[in-house]
Automatic annotation (TrEMBL):
This is dTDP-4-dehydrorhamnose 3,5-epimerase. The keyword Cell membrane does not apply. It catalyses: dTDP-4-dehydro-6-deoxy-alpha-D-glucose = dTDP-4-dehydro-beta-L-rhamnose. The gene is rfbC. Homodimer. Catalyzes the epimerization of the C3' and C5'positions of dTDP-6-deoxy-D-xylo-4-hexulose, forming dTDP-6-deoxy-L-lyxo-4-hexulose. The active site is at residues 61, 131. Belongs to the dTDP-4-dehydrorhamnose 3,5-epimerase family. Pathway: Carbohydrate biosynthesis; dTDP-L-rhamnose biosynthesis. Pfam families: dTDP_sugar_isom. GO terms for molecular function: dTDP-4-dehydrorhamnose 3,5-epimerase activity. It comes from Marseilla massiliensis.
Length: 186
């Protein structure tokens, strides 16, 4: 796998080596050994999958300490825009984001470390999204910032009239009204 660094340290895009022929394709979607060597040691404990329709926007989510999560995400069907926002107090990139298009054709994966809010928008008719987490889901630890916070400068590529959000996601505060539970450290 090739690891592509982004403008925010620790947030990386992973491109697998794909073997194609007349029968189709094969690629190794995860190798603990290679991940440890090229990204860092993370012990994933839970795999999740969701299916959403065009215009669905989920996020920007995180889990409060002590249940913080790092995630390794990918789109196995369709196309989506996936975003990580740095919410670590004191970080030189606080409030900045990395956005990457994940598709069934590019097979890219996106690693989001702890201390980031995560969200996505579905750009195709439907999309199937899979992700690994290094901490189990704890509903009592749910947190978020507004996915529609204009101060973040995220181009979700979904016209406002077509955006579909859960009721929960419409209630998150903007970044300026948010008190982050995360502290940046090298």
């Amino acid at each position: 796998m090739e690891v592509i660094k982004t403008e925010i340290e620790g947030v990386v895009i992973i491109e697998p080596r794909i073997f194609k022929d007349a029968r189709g394709y094969f690629f190794e979607s995860f190798s603990q050994r290679e991940f440890d060597d090229k990204v860092g040691h993370v012990e994933f404990v839970q795999d999740n999958e969701s299916m959403s329709s065009y215009g669905v926007m989920r996020g920007l989510h995180f889990q409060h300490p002590p249940f913080t999560q790092a995630k390794l995400v990918r789109c196995v069907k369709g196309k989506m825009l996936d975003v990580a926002v740095d919410i670590r107090k004191g970080s030189p990139t606080y409030g900045k984001h990395v956005a990457v298009e994940l598709t069934e054709d590019n097979h890219r994966q996106f690693f989001i470390p702890k201390g980031f809010a995560h969200g996505f928008a579905v750009l195709s008719e439907t999309a199937v999204f899979q992700y690994k987490c290094d901490e189990f889901y704890h509903p009592e630890a749910d947190g978020g910032i507004s996915i529609l916070d204009g101060s973040l400068g995220i181009d979700w590529r979904i016209p406002t009239g077509h955006a579909i959000l859960s009721e929960k996601d419409t209630k998150h505060s903007s970044l300026k009204d948010f008190e982050s539970p995360f502290v940046y450290s090298k």
